[in-house]
Amino acid sequence: MRAPLPFRFRNRLETSRMVLYSALAGVLVGVSSALLLSALDVVQDFLMGLAGYHPPSLPSRGGVLMAFEGNVRWWALLVLPTMAGLAVWLYRPSHIDPLAETIEHYHSGESRPIVWTLQLRRILAGFLSVGAGVPLGREGMLLSVAQATAHLTSRFGSLSKSEARTILMASGAAVLGVVFHAPLACAVIIAEILYRRNEFEFEILMPAVLSSVAAYAIYGTLMGFSPLLDLPPVETPSYWSMPLYLLLGAIIAGMANVYLQAIRALRRNLRKVRVNVLVITVAGAVGVALCSVFFDGTLGDGLGWTQLAFMGMLDDLSVYQHFMVRFVVTLMVSGAFMVGGYFTPQLVIGAFAGASLGAAINAVFPADPVNVLVFGLVGAAAFLSSTTNIPLGATLLLATWSGEEILIPLVLSTFTAYAVGGVYSLYVEQKNVRAESGAHISNIVSEALSQPAPQDLMELLRNQPVTVLRGDTEQISEIDVPSSWFGKTKGEVEIPETILVFAIAREGKIHVPNNKTPFIAGDQVMLIGEPQEVAQFQAALEAQNSEVAPAGSGVAAS
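and the corresponding structure tokens:
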């Protein structure tokens, strides 16, 4: 019988495997991204060209920074609603943002099979939606490719569930690195975006760096290396202006909070409307198409117009208009469940918000003007930081494009926006702390099982005090699933935000639930919360049930 490998050697072998497969995933993402983005350029030129519309395109994408004016064929603006509706018909997403789905997959702690026909439909839907000019980012389509790439790599390498989740996030970093031409910054973004506050997934950082760098190396070799935005040189702002960047971060945080609250309200209310989601999407696309008739900067991801603003080729009034129109149409496409990437719009809105504030300051105090370009760059980072809770990643991303000269203003604004902003995020799938993530529940259970006594897993978990919510009095408790939950999923039942459902005991086994996990009779739900709050929660459930609760149910005291 072969002797087991020493722990130190086995650990090195596992590390070498992750290096190999992270790089392999990056290579696959790089090749597929170059092909798909080239094809998307062709589709976009054709579909938006039907309406006589050619928005400015970035030189880094092989485009030109000018808008071709001509006779806009108004009838061809029906292309946008048609393509947006067809995209939703092809792929009716439970997550309109594939990045949100990737975050949930990581936290679920589960290994989910890939449905290849669905992946192909999602990619085609991205071509139709973004190609027709829906004001969303290109990363949405490519993140579907990242999921497929991670699945292939995991199957090829026979990776464990933990390793497969790491490769999934590394592939996501590779996609963002290719789209934004910033591989190192996007690796940090992926490690940071999994949590809301003061947490960082260090385990995936190095694989994300390897995958992202490999992807960008392949993509750059095929398509060319250059920063996403071609910015003029900037000087380090004067020390007296630093308080202005603190103020900018606070103002941007307020804007971001209004933006997030509006998106939440729109999605919540539209889901209550008894109308087919296809009808909602087409109606939203009609609204966007009408906006495009009256304002040139509506269609496309907006990065070309952002480049023009940073080069000083838009007057102050145009900058204000771009900010307002982008803010409104992004709310429209978000509420209408359109298919695309929702990461890019945060950068565009923030860039025009910062530039608008800089222009307003110069209009009020013309004697000592501020640099509108710097305000736009810092505004983009601050808005992204506040809407997605990634201050470090946002700072590094904008510093990659602009240089280290504005690093101090970036840090001041992004972390101010992060601190002033609320707990809400564009990605509700984010967790507060690592202890809430299903990716780490197995480690907690394994540590509990390693204890010599007691042997009962339920008893072990009940007796462990935890500090994951608001204070140091939370405990793990257990309740029987009420009859009103039978047949419903975790996402369909109302659970207070102060209580975390982190596991289900079913037939002697522990399951980590996600929002699609159904409850059945006999389940026992394991909760984290203050005993008083859990008791109130259980009393409210018993009041809602029409049937008498089974004997023996109740909260297990810790």
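(Above: one complete record from the training split.) Residues 1-11, 449-457, 462-473, 548-558 have pLDDT under 50 and may be disordered.
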